[in-house]
Amino acid sequence: EAQVTQNPRYLITVTGKKLTVTCSQNMNHEYMSWYRQDPGLGLRQIYYSMNVEVTDKGDVPEGYKVSRKEKRNFPLILESPSPNQTSLYFCASSKLGTGGMNTEAFFGQGTRLTVV
Amino acid sequence: DAKTTQPPSMDCAEGRAANLPCNHSTISGNEYVYWYRQIHSQGPQYIIHGLKNNETNEMASLIITEDRKSSTLILPHATLRDTAVYYCIVRPRRAGGGADGLTFGKGTHLIIQP
User: Fold this and answer.
1) How far apart, in whole angstroms, are the C-alpha atoms of residue A13 and residue A5?
2) A48, B94: Cβ pair inside 8 Å?
3) In DSSP terms, which residues pair with B48 in a beta bridge?
4) How many other CB atoms sit within 10 Å of the CB of residue A108?
5) For range A58-72, the mean pLDDT
6) Contact B85, B108 (CB under 8 A)
7) Is the CB of residue B39 less than 8 Å away from at least one CB of chain A?
């Protein structure tokens, strides 16, 4: 089954304790991205990657890191989490069409992170 | 600035067609109209997209006006499971240039009534 898998689904952590949220897709998609969703603010893009070893900042990258060492994985790293990073996080992937055309994005089921 | 305008909420009776409007008066020629929905904090789900012609798939139909300034998503026979927030997104045809162009606004909360 084609899917985007995030882990963990729920996480409670303390301020300053480094954490990683994993994201894996089995569709051989070139494009992967991370979003956060907060009440009243909608979904906002954090980082994206157009292929292996190619990453770039989205709209709200502060406090986050990403890496793309393999095509299928795109982990989100919080080096020193703070309470304002409490949010619902989504990973997404999509295939880049001919000439770099956008195609439909597939989303993971989300990771609810609480930083206390 | 928001690229799309949608009503915040709508009701529809189960079994009837749900028609969700979207205004995108500033759409440019290289932008598609995409629709996604999100069911109660699950990951957004792709529904349909189009450029200028009407489109239909197993989930819905998309009607885009001739001037492309507005569109309507039609769920032909709404069920209770269609209750969700529906997002209308104007998105560049080509990826890159800062983002994948998926800018989610507040969407329309569609409530299907039994």
Assistant:
1) 21
2) no
3) B35
4) 25
5) 96
6) yes
7) no
Task: Report the residue from A35, A88, A100 with minimal CB separation from B95.
Answer: A100
What are the Cα distances from residue A66, in Å, to A7, A61, A83, A111, B17? Answer: 15, 10, 19, 16, 43
> In degrees, to the nearest 5, what angle opens at C-alpha A81 toward C-alphas A33 and B99?
20
The CA-to-CA distance between both ends of chain A, in Å, stands at 36
- pLDDT block averages, 10 residues each, chain B of length 114: 86 97 92 93 93 93 96 97 95 65 86 96
pLDDT value for B94: 72
**Which of A14-28, A67-81, B91-105 is predicted least confidently?**
B91-105
φ, ψ at A51 (rounded to 5°):
180, 180
pLDDT per residue over A38-51, tens digit each?
988 888 999 999 88
Q: Residue B95: which of A45, A102, A104 has the nearest Cβ?
A: A102
pLDDT at position B101, please? 63
Half-sphere exposure (Cβ direction) of B90: Cα atoms closer than 13 Å = 22
What residues of chain A lie within 8 A of the CB of B107, using their CB? Answer: 42
Residue B37 CA to its chain's centroid (Å): 7
Do the Cβ atoms of A52 and A32 come closer than 8 Å? Answer: no
